[in-house]
Amino acid sequence: MLAAHTFAQPATSVPRLRHPARRMTRRNTYAVRVRGDGMRDCNLFNGDVIIIRRFQHGAHETATAEINRRPVALKRLTINRNGLQLIFDHTDWPAVFLHNRDIEVLSLVMGIEHHATEH
């Protein structure tokens, strides 16, 4: 006959290790050139270059654009599989959707910077 034994866990206090939380800053830059005349109604013409800079730190995100070297403030930038949507800070300007067929991607630079914080 086997006797049942229970083993008590030692009541020791194990110190909790502090692990630094990782915070990230993302910096993405996109350069696109307008192709064709399909964007004339938005005052974008064949060969116009648009530089878009997106900065994201935690939940805070900002985006700016330069159209032919003129800075433009963006309220929101949306990128999906069909193209880019630029919603301008200036309320008089309509939102612009740049369909993939209307733009040529010249460059894409994506960067992530990690910050260690204690908590």
TrEMBL record:
SUPFAM superfamilies: LexA/Signal peptidase. Residues 25-106 form the Peptidase S24/S26A/S26B/S26C domain. InterPro entries: LexA/Signal_pep-like_sf (IPR036286), Peptidase_S24_S26A/B/C (IPR015927). Gene3D superfamilies: Umud Fragment, subunit A. Pfam families: Peptidase_S24. This is Repressor LexA. The lineage of its organism: Bacteria, Pseudomonadati, Pseudomonadota, Gammaproteobacteria, Oceanospirillales.
